[in-house]
Amino acid sequence: MGIKLDWQVESEETHVTATEDPTARRRRHRARYRALALVIALAAVVGIVIAALAWRLDRVDNQYRQDLLDTVEIEITALRLGDYANFMAVQRSASDAFLLEQGRVFEDYQELKRAGRVNLTGGVIDVVIDELRGRVVIEEIIDGVPYHVVWFYWYYEDGGDQGGWRRVPDDLTFWGEEHEIDKGPARISYRDLDRALADALAPRLADWWTRGPALVGATLNPPPPVQVEIVAERPAAVEWAAYAPWTLRITSPLVDRARADAALPPGLEYTIAEQVAARLVSYAAGEIQPVGYSDAAWLQTEITRWLAGALVYGEGASPAPGLTDSLIAAYGGSAPVTLLAGLGLDSTLDSVLQTVTGVPLPLMSVEVLGALDWRGFFQWRLEREFALLADSAGGGAFLALYDMETVYASNEATVRLEDPAYAARPVPQVNAVRITRDEASQTYAYVDVSGVEPGNAASLDVIIWRLAGGSWRRSN
C-alpha cells in the first residue's frame, strides 16, 4: 500500500468530469439532421431534373428516329405503288444531278417490279443518327436473293414541306468508327458497316497468305504481312494500293448493293483471291513485268488462275482447270514452282514448259501434247488479237501473234490489221483443241470456236495454230 501525500488527496477530492449540456446537444443534432435532409432534398431535385432531361432527350431521339423511319416507309411505299411524285418529294439536294439520278433509280425499281424480280420488303436492318445525319440499311430481295442497300438522310430544320428528314446524296464518310483485325500474317482495317465482311475475310486471308507462298515456292524468302483496307469509295475496285505494294484495297459492297445471304459473297471472295494470287505469283517470279501479249504474261496469268482456285477451292478442286492443272496431273505437284522458277521476261511457252517436262514442245508426242489443256491459252490469244486491233500502236504486236513464215497467214494478218469490220467482231469462244503433226513434223493445234459471226453465238469455225519459234502462231 502506498502513502498518499496531502496534495494528491486534495486533487482527487476536487476532480470534476466535464459533461455537455443536454439541451445544446439536442440543438446540435437537429441542426445536423436538417443539413443532411437539405442535401438529400437537393440531390433528389437534381436527380429528378437530370432524369427529366434524359427522358426528354431520349424522347426527342426516339421521335427523330421514328420520323426517319416514317420517311423511309414513305419512300418505300412510293416505290411499291409507282408513285413518282411522293418518291421525289422525299429527295432533296442542291445538286440537280442527284435528283436526276434518283429519277433513274425510281425507273429502275419500276422495271424490276414489272419483271416480277424485286420484293421491296421494307425491312430496316440498321439505323444510325449523328446529329442531323441519318443512315439506314434497307433490305430488299431481287431474283430471290436478299440484298442490303444503304440510304442517307439529312434533317432539314427550315420547316415547311421540305423540312424534316430528306434523302440526300450518299455520304461515304458516314460509314462508322474505324476498327482493325490482326490475324497472323493478315491485318484488316474497316468501319462499322463492314464488320461482317471483315470478320468473314480475316481467317480466309490469313490462310491464303500462309498456304500461298508454299504453293509458289516462296517459303525461303516469304512475303511481308498483307494489309487489307475495306473502304467506302467509288469507283468500286479490288486492287493493290499504288502507295503500298502489300496493301490491298477493297471497296465495301454496301457502296452499291450488297448480297445479304453471305458476309463474303463467292464472287467477291474469288476476286480477292485472284488479287492475292497475282501478288504472290509476281513476288515468286521476281517481280517481272512481261509485255502484255507475250507468252510470259500468259504463263503468269495462268499460274495466278491456278493459285486462286487452289486458295479458294483447294488444290485439285478448281471448277475450271487449265494448263497448270494438266501439268500437275502429268508431272507432279511441283510443276507450278518449277514454272515460276523458269519464268523470265522473254520466256516462250517452249522454254518454260521444258523446265517441267524435260522435252522441247516440238519433240513431245502428239498424245502428250494433246493431254495438256490448251484452251485457256488459245482463248487468251484470241482476246489479245482483238485488244491489239483496238490499239492504234498494236500493229506490230498483232502481227507477231501470226505465223508470218507462211504466205497465207501473213496475208490474212495484214488484211485483218486494216479491216475495221474484222476488228468489230466479237471474240470467238474456244470449245475444244486437237493436236496433230504432219509428215514434215510440223505440229498444229486445231481449235474449235463458236460465235465467230456477229450476233450469232452458234456460228462455228476452226482456227489453226502452228508450233513455231517456241510458241503457237496463228495460221489462218
Would you mind describing this structure in some detail?
- The chain has 476 residues and is of the alpha+beta class.
- The protein has 3 domains: 60-167, Nuclear Transport Factor 2, Chain: A; 180-357; 361-474, Nuclear Transport Factor 2, Chain: A (Roll).
- It is 46% helix and 20% strand.
- It is built from 15 helices and 15 strands.
- The strands form 3 sheets. Strands 1, 2, 3, 4, 5 and 11 form a 6-stranded antiparallel beta sheet that branches. Strands 6-7-8-10-9 form a 5-stranded mixed beta sheet.
- Helix 5 runs parallel beside helix 6 (266-284).
- The radius of gyration is 38 Å and the shape is elongated.
- Looking at the structure, what is the overall shape? elongated
Nearest-integer average pLDDT? 91
SSE succession: HHHHEEEEEEEHEEEEHHHHHHHHHHEEEE
Identify low-pLDDT runs: 54-59
Radius of gyration: 38 Å
**Helix residue percentage:** 40-55%
Sequence-ordered SSE layout with sheet pairings:
Blueprint: H1 6-14, H2 22-81, H3 84-89, H4 96-114, E1 118-119, E2 124-130, E3 133-142, E4 145-156, E5 164-167, E6 178-183, E7 186-191, H5 195-215, E8 226-231, E9 238-240, E10 247-251, E11 258-259, H6 266-284, H7 295-313, H8 323-331, H9 335-341, H10 349-357, H11 366-371, H12 375-389, H13 395-400, H14 407-417, H15 420-423, E12 429-437, E13 443-450, E14 460-468, E15 471-474
Helix pairs in contact: 5-6, 6-7, 9-10
Main traits of this protein?
single chain; 476 residues; alpha+beta; Nuclear Transport Factor 2, Chain: A; 3 domains; five-stranded mixed sheet; elongated
